[in-house]
Amino acid sequence: MDILLSPPVAFLIYVPLAFLIAEFGKALAGPGKPSEMKGAPYAGGEEASTEKGVPGYRPFFLIAFFFAILHLGTLVLGLGDLTMQIMPYLLGLALVLVILLLG
Predict the structure, then answer these.
(1) pLDDT per residue over 3-38, tens digit each?
(2) Average pLDDT over every residue of 75-91
């Protein structure tokens, strides 16, 4: 039963399972009815702005990648021993974090 917990086997099981659940949800949903209101922008009852409201997702993704790498790297380093074999990984982690900080 431990083979089911290995990442490749779990991936091969859960991807088709997620696909089946999504298809089941689509079958439960009613048929869509296109209308002009569905395609119109919604601005809380006000006239929709034609200007760009946010600077984009680039700053968000830089911060998200920074914290993802920081947390996963800390997890990997915390589960291992501090030996010379892990030093290249530690230096690579530091390099990636510096690159993300500098943008």
Answers:
(1) 877 888 889 999 999 999 999 999 999 888 888 877
(2) 83
3-state helix, strand, coil in the chain (%, to 5): 70, 0, 30
Are residues 73 and 93 in contact, defined by beta-carbon separation less than 8 angstroms? yes
Would you say 71 and 96 are in contact if contact means Cβ atoms under 8 Å apart? no
Q: Cα(26)–Cα(20) distance, rounded to whole angstroms?
A: 10
* DSSP code for 32: P
Neighbouring C-alpha atoms within 13 Å toward the C-beta of 19: 6
pTM to 2 decimal places: 0.40
Tokens at 88, concatenated: 């290249």
In the chain, what are the domain boundaries? Answer: 57-103
Between CA 8 and CA 13 the distance in angstroms is 9
- Rounded Cα distance, 40 and 46, in Å: 12
Contacts of 4 (CB under 8 A, 6+ apart): 10, 13
